[in-house]
Amino acid sequence: MLDKPVINKSLPINTKDRPTQLLSLPEVHSTIEVPEGAGFWKKMMAFTGPGLMVAVGYIDPGNWATDIEGGSRFGYTLLSVILISNLFAMLLQHLALKLGIATGRDLAQACRDYYSRPVSLVLWVLSEIAIAATDLAEVIGSAIALNLLFGLPLPAGVVFTAFDVLIVLYFQQKGFRIIESIVAGLMGTILLCFLYEMIVAQPSIAAMASGLLPRKEIVSNPGMLYIAIGILGATVMPHNLYLHSSIVQTRAFKRDETGKRSAIKFATIDSTVSLAIAFFINGSILVLAATAFHKNGHFEIADITDAYHLLDPVLGVSLASIFFALALLASGQSSTLTGTLAGQIVMEGFLNIRLKPWLRRLITRGIAILPALIVSYLFGEKGTADLLVLSQVVLSLQLSFAVVPLVFFTSKRSLMGSFANSRAITFFSWLVSLIIIGLNGYLLFNTLFR
Predict the structure, then answer these.
(1) What is the pLDDT of residues 221-266, one digit of tens each?
(2) Distance CA 254, CA 34 (A)
(3) In whole angstroms, how far apart are CA 421 and each of 101, 237, 409, 416, 444?
(4) How far apart are CA 149 and CA 32, in angstroms?
(5) What sections of the protein cross the membrane (predicted)?
(6) Which of 6, 134, 309, 331 is 20 to 30 A (C-alpha) from 197?
């Protein structure tokens, strides 16, 4: 079994309400044994899973619109922005998993330990807003996919997404490894769909390689800069930082310094490889748009539905649009699973309140369904596309309130001990944080006032 978390006595606040056991994932928490004395690959398999669950948040439907618009308008140029965004994500997710493994506390619990009650409540509210915005993107993405695949009207598709709560609750009772396997299967479906799209589209290898190199025009061209910031803003998800810091604790390993150091190494490999897969998928969406649309003179494709309808005639392959919509549906459903867990982690970590999973899920999904249903009924496809963009703006606004505490805690030697960030990691972490905060602030300002 997992040891009780080690609480650092130097943390000054809220010692009276600290829990005596891991609160995160109470309904699905099944310890996954890490074999001692095993070889590299056996240990790697034991630690594989949390990275994939985090990675699906980087390919949720909210990313699709920015990637499609970037590819259709500017070709392969913004591929470098997707690469840089993923490198930022790899660093931040490493910090999140390190916090969880080194301290036995997830990010929400660490915030409750360190900050005053009013500050913790504010951070909790902001986290809930971010999770609701994420769920909104999943609802809209799934509804659009159901409309494209089966002709289901958008309002009906939005209502239909309410039933995925039953699926989530069913598999939560089967154990955490089952949920990881489902997410891995959905991730594999998305990956295979875009491998097919890349084979059919036959993009230019030289152009893709060139697009991976940052260009000065990304900053000098206002239109390109705006989309580049949108891609960055849609990439790093605040709820993923809370999620990752908790689910890495589902592995049972020796909790001495050597054991923790080994766990951080394997968890980092899991996270980095998974995010590399997410980079391939996000990059594929942009490359597909660049090859199918930009190359053929369709420069204004920013809508998922328009992209779906244009794929077959442009590429001349009847299955291209079907695989595109199937990947979108898998993206929405995989993000639903991880969003549910993140919601439980955030509420229990900040408030030390445990709700029944079905009640927690119904509340979150209800908040997301209501605006999506109203907008889809009154304004149709255009309205839902705009609402999808708005959900990403809301996420951008919330991001700094998760990133700053994460970097602060992992740089604090009194909390992390020998696992505290080195000076170099601290410098780059704060630099990345400032860049993300600045660019997301710029995106928000321009979205509201331009």
Answers:
(1) 878 887 887 777 667 778 889 999 999 998 888 888 999 999 999 9
(2) 9
(3) 14, 22, 9, 8, 30
(4) 37
(5) 74-97, 143-171, 183-205, 225-243, 264-290, 310-330, 362-380, 392-411, 423-445
(6) 134
